[in-house]
User: Fold PPM-type phosphatase domain-containing protein from Dictyobacter kobayashii.
Amino acid sequence: MASFHWMQSCSERLYQWLLLAYPSEFRREFGQEMAQAFRDCCREEVRTGGTARLFPLWGTVFYDFMKSVSIEHFLTLKHIFLHDKEYSMLNAPLQLQVAQLTDIGRKRALNEDNLISVLPEDRSILDQKGALFVVADGMGGHAHGEIASQMAVTLIREAYYQDTANDIPTSLINAIKHANATIYQESQAKISSDDKEDPLKVGMGTTCVVMVVKDRTLYIANVGDSLAYLINDQEVKQLAEDHSWVAGQVRKGLMSEEEARTSDNRNIITRSLGTDAEVEVYLMTATDAQAGDTLVLCTDGLHGQISEAEMREIVTSYPPEESAKRLIEHANENGGPDNITAIVVKIS
Assistant:
């Protein structure tokens, strides 16, 4: 089983490197979806036929890769000569440059994080619902955490954009609660009657942090210890509420931030999707987004391994794609004990 995970992890890492051959604009728009599709195919091949099935899969992938890379570079050159605009929310009051990256870290056998960025091409949808960003950190044995986090990002995206109401905060909360109910039902189905008698046998769950950017307003909702930040030259502002046990103790004045960072209980969370039939969602709105601000959504595998000062130094010094890469590299250099995921959004 360990060799399966190793081969699977190596394949996913290699594919991430291959994606670097595509033009940067193409990677920003399609890279995450392509990586997720490859991950799903890779894991299905290993599950059904073992690691030997990876070789024919790579044969197909590499052929398609060479063909599509050539086409995309040709189109990029064409766009340059036609003076096309860069990847952004064209003609919007604020333009967004987006990069996203996830990494297995240095200690985990599986990557149970997931993420998604949605910038609607339909202008009417963009004007009404804005751009959506979601990061989720799954938990549960036997890869259940990976399933939970994937369900979270998919269900939240679908429910949010299918809700035609103009009330964004309500739409966000409803989408997250819908995801919670669906994951909870799936979790209960995966727990056998025997497992339910054993308190050590649990189903699956996930954290999530969600942000909608519409005009100059940010709508942030979260459950668990995946967080969001607004960063500029003056400050680092945490926009989500940390639902770890130690963060709760700090808010109550029962523990210092330094004690929280070194506590043995720092990985315990008090709220998550899928673990209960109902969930309380934290929500806040920020109306002061400005050109030059950078937004970061991340799992605790990132914010638990680097300081806010280090995060600010990186994202104010580099564009989003390089920032995401350096954030994850820095977390790995500090031990990489968990999966690491970040979405970096530069406002211009």
